[in-house]
Amino acid sequence: xxxxxxxxxxxxxxxxxxxxxxxxxxxxxxxxxxxxxxxxxxxxxxxxxxxxxxxxxxxxxxxxxxxxxxxxxxxxxxxxxxxxxxxxxxxxxxxxxxxxxxxxxxxxxxxxxxxxxxxxxxxxxxxxxxxxxxxxxxxxxxxxxxxxxxxxxxxxxxxxxxxxxxxxxxxxxxxxxxxxxxxxxxxxxxxxxxxxxxxxxxxxxxxxxxxxxxxxxxxxxxxxxxxxxxxxxxxxxxxxxxxxxxxxxxxxxxxxxxxxxxxxxxxxxxxxxxxxxxxxxxxxxxxxxxxxxxxxxxxxxxxxxxxxxxxxxxxxxxxxxxxxxxxxxxxxxxxxxxxxxxxxxxxxxxxxxxxxxxxxxxxxxxxxxxxxxxxxxxxxxxxxxxxxxxxxxxxxxxxxxxxxxxxxxxxxxxxxxxxxxxxxxx
Length: 426
What we know:
Pfam family, one: YPEB_N
Number of strands: 12
Organism: Psychrobacillus insolitus
Protein name: Spore germination protein
InterPro entries: YpeB_N, YpeB_PepSY1-2
Radius of gyration: 28 Å
Domain Sporulation protein YpeB N-terminal: 26-115
Strand content: 15-25%
């Protein structure tokens, strides 16, 4: 009996020592994190003030030479503050609004410096933005101060996820930034189009029922017709309404998402064990084309594919029916099993969002004038890519090679002959 009591006492002592050891480590971690976050917050608040002062300098001068340094300071400081914010465990919405607002300021300064945005437009928008930065800096300092107590930083950041009150406080600040963004930087036409795409506003199809989705799922995936299905609707605050289908059949489990309007397949994922056999590349391509045709996505073509030990990963782009140009932004990604070609995954979000393609002239390019004699044009085709203003532009996709330098893929605007993108291929 005494021996048993001694064992219990020993276990209790070990538990107590372990408990206090863990608690001490947690306290040291909290202190270290609190100091780290405090330094980052103080630095960010100070940089916000410096940023507003740099903006003041851009409102004083009209001489381009005098404006170079202030505009460079605005770009640099906005980038530094974004880096500080990205390192903080802020509420996601707040962090996003801060990053967007500062990114617009930094990009604006860069565009003014490069002559892409008139100085008058910049000065007009910055008149209110610089005062907003002062207000935000003061609110930031207030949110981090709390009479200088370390406990506040621990509660707010180290244990942020369990403290709704602090989340609401930071979310309020994020809402302020969002309001300033909307007033200081109204959406351009191209940005408005981007938002409409994200919300799938262009889909005019009528809504389908849950039973219709079940029927469509079985039609698309006949091998899973006797699987156990569980269908739910998206939440009310989702950017667009969709159905979420979870399925289970033997060793296969997964899900599929369909839009509520029109019942378009958004995404698909299947998980199962894999064999060691491998189908050929030709068979893989046949399978990919077959799946896309079955899902009514036949106006696409394979533009790239890669493999790992269990699957092929295939990138597809829509082919424009007017000029056969590739629309990379309207892409579909497939994942196909290497052992038997079974569809393991699909992402059609970009395809369903669908780009608004404008009419554009095609003016031939004299490559002898554009490239040095050392470069040889190996391939040319048409493709739509984004320019700096997020607009889809028809471009010549040119593969050009130099034996000593390598191969480059270059996109040239078919109308203006502006170089939209350039990348060196591996």
